[in-house]
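Marked as duplicate of an earlier ticket. Keeping the data here for the record.
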Amino acid sequence: MSKKRWEYLDILKTIAIICVCSYHFSWAGDSSFHVEGMSITILNNRFWAGMWSICMPLFFMVNGALLLNKKELDYKRHLYKIVSIGIAFLIWRGITIIILGMSSGALKTSGIIEVINAIIFGGKITGIDTAHFWFVPLLVSIYIIYPFIYELYAKKNKWLYFFMAFLLVSCFLFGDISSVLKNISACESINVMYIFEFNPFKKLNCGMLFYFILGGWLHRERERFNQVPAVKMVAIFFVGQIVLFIQWFLVSKSSGSNWDNVFNGYTTTATLLMSISVYVLVYKCSGKIMKCEKLSTCFEIVGNNTLGIYYIHWIIGYTFLVYLRENYIAYSGIVLNYIKAIILTLGIAFLCKMFKKVQIIGKIL
């Protein structure tokens, strides 16, 4: 008996990976904070860039929706999955470091020990950027504690709701309060993030764990949220985006440097609201969207290959997109950036589909 495929989850994964490809190697134009002042174009770019912050939350929500709502947990299969992801991670680190190192010439001055250290133990090699790999260890860390979360979730144990409330307050709410207080001279010395000393997880891990559990719960209660009018969800999304934009301005102003409202936005209440609204909206609209067979096929192919796209887009970005941008693409803009991201996503997705026909390659995609 074949497993039921939740088509709306494919759409969510597609939105997430397009946001990743929009954020990395952006062609949107300048969106940084400048103390001396900013043009309308810069402010517009930063406002729309804020929606990219839903990328990682959506990935973890989809993971939670799929894993936490299993009828039963196969421990042996789950352990195999963790090991497989770990091995693929090391292989892709090796591939990325070798290709980018050869492309930039960084490997010419690196010894074999330095390269091995970079591949296995996360060491740095000057001229080779592997910053995007942070995602996989975090995912595996959640997979490791997933069986404990599953047992609480399956039994609808009230302790899990207390745990989620704790994660929400310590990771999201107090972080937002802290960013506001830094802009009030009488309160700027107050360290409200001290509460995080009581949290056993790092801030980013804490946030993604919350999204993971939230995704499971939203999927279980999807019909209840389906009753919420779409216009309310759209309004919530834009409220979140506006709040995130204001937070970017306030934090950047108080620090005197640009605050990345995408990466740093993952653990903000604003991005949480945006992620929930997108999740619900996609579920509500998925039936109509998937009526188009070609569109449905594209979403399924992308949905099946998001991790492969994540690994490969970084290599293409540094070996081709940067060169293309510096030599041939003079224009910048949000629309152009999305076109680039969609072409990159679809191109790599179909490439992964072909590569998966080769058994050995398929196992690391």
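See parent ticket for discussion. The chain has a mean pLDDT of 93.
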